[in-house]
Amino acid sequence: MNPLAPSKCLRRLLMALAAMTSVLLTAGCGGSGSGIVHPLGGGFSNSSLTGTYVMKQTGFFANSAGNAQAFSEVTVFSANGSGTLTIIEDDGGPQGPGVETLAGTYSIESDGEGYLIFNNPTQSIYQITMIDNSHFYVIEGDTYATSAGYGVLQTSTAVPSGAFVFKAHNFDSSSRVGGIAISNGAFTGTQDLLTLGGTNLSQTITGTVTAPDASGVGTFILTAPAGSTSGNYYVISPSEFYFLANPGSGSLEIGQAEAQSGGPFSLATLAANTSYVFGSRGDTILNQPGIHSAGIFTTDGNGNITTGSVDYVRDFNVLSGLPFTVSGGIYTLDPSGDGNGTITLPLSNGVTITQVFWMVSPTSAYFLDNSSSAVEDGTFSLQSGGPFTALTGQAAFVMDGVDTNYKDRVGTFEPTTSGNFNWNEQSNSAGTGAVSVGTNGSYTVGSNGRIAAVVNNVTASGVSPGVVFYLSSPNSGFMVQEDGADIGGVFTQQASQ
Predict the structure, then answer these.
(1) Less Cβ crowding at N or C end of the chain, within 10 Å?
(2) What are the structural domains of the chain?
C-alpha cells in the first residue's frame, strides 16, 4: 500500500471532525421537513450494492488555512452485498494518489438512499442514492468537505480498445471533448479544447496507455500536443472508462469516455422533427462554479434548429425559459463522419450559445460551450416518450453548486398524483455536514418536457420554489434551480426492485 500524501491525510482528518455524529443521526431517518418519512417506494437493500464500483466526484474541502479548496477524486471499492466495503484505490487532486486496501461499511434503504463509510486514517462519509444495482449518485457528507458525483459497477478490467468519445473538465481552467481510437497500447484522435478566457482549439492528439492492473487502473500519457497531461484511467466496462490527470501536475482535470457507435454521422443523424435535451455545468471568469444550464432543441435533419428553449443560471443571474429565435439556429457535422459538429442556438435575449459536440451514438453526444468567458461542458440525448403530461415513476437525483455556501444534494422524488410529488434528500452545505430532509412539492409539465416544479419547505430543503426540469424521457432529465443560486443537476428513473 502506498502511503497517503500528507495533504490527503489532512483533508480526511478535517472531514472527519464532528461529521460522524451529524451524518449517522440524519441518515435513514425522517430528518426535518414536512413529515415525509424515509424511505419512499422501492425494493433496494444492502444486496443491491454488490461487486466492484468505480466512483468519481468533484467538490471542495477546507484546507489547512481553513479556506475552500477544489478537488477531483476517483475511487474504486468493492461491496459484499451485506454492508461491508473494501476501498481498493482512491486517487485525487490536489492531494495525490492513494492505492489502499482499507475497510468500510454501507447501508442501503428500500428507496435506494443510503450511505458509505470509508475507514481512512479517520473516516469519510458519503450519501448515495441507487439508480439501479449498477449505478448510483453520490455526495460527500462530511463537515469539512462536500462534493457530488456518480458511481458505476465495474464489469471489466481489460484495456479499452476501439473508438471512444470523451469529455473532461479542469476546475476553473478548461473543458475538452473529443474522439480517439485505442489500439495496442496507443491512441490517436482529435479534441476540441477550450481554456477559460480563450477560444476553442481543434487539435490532433496522440498518446499511450498501459495495461490496467487487477483493479482496472492503468496510466495514460498524452504525447501530443506538447505540454499535455498524463494520469490514470479507470476501466468500468469494455465501453466505458473514467480518467484523472496526474495530481502532481497541479491539474484537477477529471473526465469520462464511452465507446462510439452508430457512425458515420451526418446531418441526417439529428433527424427531422426530433428533439434533444441537454444539460451542462461549468466555471465562469467570475465564479467557480458559475453556470448550470438545461434545455431542449429540435432539428430538421438538414442542418437547422427549428425550435427549443433553455434555462440557465450564470453568475447568480437567472435566465428562465428563453426560446430560440425562429431563424438562425443551425447545426453542422464534419463531412468525415467522425461525429464532430457544432450547434448554434440564438436566444431571445440576444445571446447566442455555440456548442461544440462529439457524437457518442446517434442518440447522445458530449459537448462544450464555446465561450470566451466560461468553461462549461455537458451532454445531450434524444428525447423519448413525449408528448408529456405527468411524471410517472420514482427518480434518483443529484445536484451541486453554490448559494451562500458550496452545496450538494442527493435523493429521490416520487410522483403521488399527476401534479404532486414527495421529495427526500440528503444535502451537505459546506461547514455543516449532511442533513436529511423529507418534504413534498407540485409541478406543471409542458408537452415539450419542460417542467416547472415547486419544492416545499424551502428553509429545510434549500431548494427554491422554482426548479425547472427538462425531460429526456418520462422520468429522467436535467434540472436547474432558479432562485439566484447557481445549482443544477440530473435525475434518472429508478429501476423496479
Answers:
(1) N
(2) 6-153 (2.40.128.120), 162-259 (2.40.128.120), 267-382 (2.40.128), 395-493 (2.40.128)
